[in-house]
Amino acid sequence: QVQLVESGGGLVQAGGSLRLSCVASGLTFSSYYMGWFRQAPGKERMFVADISTKIGRTTYGESVKGRFTISRDNAKNLVYLQMNSLKSEDTAVYYCAARLIGTDRYAYWGQGTQVTVSS
Predict the structure, then answer these.
(1) Is the pLDDT of residue 90 over 90?
(2) What is the pLDDT of residue 37?
(3) How far apart are CA 105 and CA 32, in angstroms?
(4) Euclidean distance between CA atoms 114 and 104, whole angstroms
(5) Residues in Cβ contact with 62 at an 8 Å cutoff, skipping those fewer than 6 apart
(6) pLDDT tens, position by position, 1-27
(7) pLDDT tens digit string along 34-88?
(8) Distance CA 63, CA 80 (A)
(9) What pLDDT is stored for residue 54 in this prediction?
(10) Which residues lie below 8 Å from residue 83, measured CB to CB, with a gap of 6+?
């Protein structure tokens, strides 16, 4: 059974930083692209960042470029999202997701972790 469990969310002031973590189990981690998505109240879920399997190529949503950094540790089945210079509009539930190499759909999702940025 595949499980993705996020942690690290919380309340932070604007301009501050948080690091989210997601630990995966039940899958061959190095065979999966890992992504972060977020959903704010009343809005659609949006792409934040993803990272490829072994070489760690990264992609970012426009609104977080230059502020967020995604990374992974294949030995520990972990993916991270370092969030700096946080803004109130970053407030959302952040989800970790896994996509198997060669597919175009994120098949597995975590339960989400709340990030609240106070202005």
Answers:
(1) yes
(2) 98
(3) 11
(4) 26
(5) none
(6) 999 999 999 999 999 999 999 999 999
(7) 999 999 999 999 999 999 997 889 999 999 999 999 999 999 999 999 999 999 9
(8) 18
(9) 79
(10) 17, 18, 19, 20, 64, 67, 68, 90, 115
User: Measured between alpha carbons, how far apart are the two ends of the chain, in Å?
Assistant: 40
Q: Which residues of 80-115 are buried (b: 16+ CB within 10 A; e: fewer)?
A: bbebeebeeebbbbbbbbbbbeeeeebebbbebbeb
- C-alpha angle with apex 119: 71 to 50, nearest 5 degrees? 20
Q: What angle do CA 54, 84, 93 make, to 5 degrees?
A: 80
SS3 of 30, please?
Answer: helix
In this structure, what token pair is assigned to residue 59?
């992609």
